[in-house]
Amino acid sequence: MEPPKHKEIVYNKDLDFLDVQVDVQEGADIVITEPIEGFLKFKMNSKTGAIFEMMFFDIKENLKKEHGDYEYYEEEDCLEVYFSKQYSPEKSLCDMIYMGDNLLITFGRNKVGNLIGSSIVGLKKIMRKFGK
Fold first, then answer.
1. What is the 8-class DSSP label of residue 102?
2. Long-range CB contacts (< 8 A, 24+ apart) of 29-35?
3. pLDDT for 82-127, tens place per residue?
4. DSSP string of 61-76?
5. Please, what's the largest Cα pairwise distance for the chain?
6. Alpha-helical segments (H) within the chain
7. Secondary structure of residue 43 in the 3-state scheme
8. Residues 6+ apart with CB under 8 A from 36
9. How many CB atoms lie within 10 A of CB 91?
């Protein structure tokens, strides 16, 4: 089985904005939600709740702040984003969004399939590799 490839990942250096396309949006009514104010937005299907895009804002500035909804581990270059207190990357079911070149982007789900978190392994490498 071949690992999933990115549909599109873009990091805008000037705006410090990371855009990760999760799925293709074909003819869907779109709604934008902001699970973490000032840091993370989702572009979603308004009828099904399917996530099409993750958009991270002001990454460098936000990583300096202490925040209960996400944590950045500098030594591992790993960002963990918590949508629920149950999120633990080691114990969650995993939806792989991107894998390659020692980089990994995943969604974490609980046993019934609810989205409870996300991990980005190699965040700064992703910012360099996909920077424009």
1. T
2. 35/69, 35/83
3. 988 888 877 888 999 999 888 999 999 988 988 899 999 999 999 9
4. HHHHS--TTEEEETTT
5. 42
6. 59-64, 123-129
7. strand
8. 67, 69, 70, 81
9. 11
**How many Å apart are CA 122 and CA 101, to the nearest integer?**
9
Tokens coding 19: 């855009």
Identify the pLDDT of residue 39. Answer: 96
CB 21 within 8 A of CB 10: no
Identify residue 43 by its one-letter amino acid code. K
**Model confidence pLDDT, tens digit, residues 58-82:** 999 999 888 889 999 999 999 999 9
Residue type, 93: L
Check the CA dihedral 76-77-83-89 and report its sign: negative
Residue 13 pLDDT greater than 80, yes or no: yes
Residue 4 is predicted with a pLDDT of 46
Q: Where are the alpha helices (DSSP H) in 34-98?
A: 59-64
- Does 1 have pLDDT greater than 50? no
Task: Determine contact, residues 70/82, Cβ cutoff 8 Å.
Answer: yes
The residue length of the chain stands at 132
Q: Where are the alpha helices (DSSP H) in 4-122?
A: 59-64
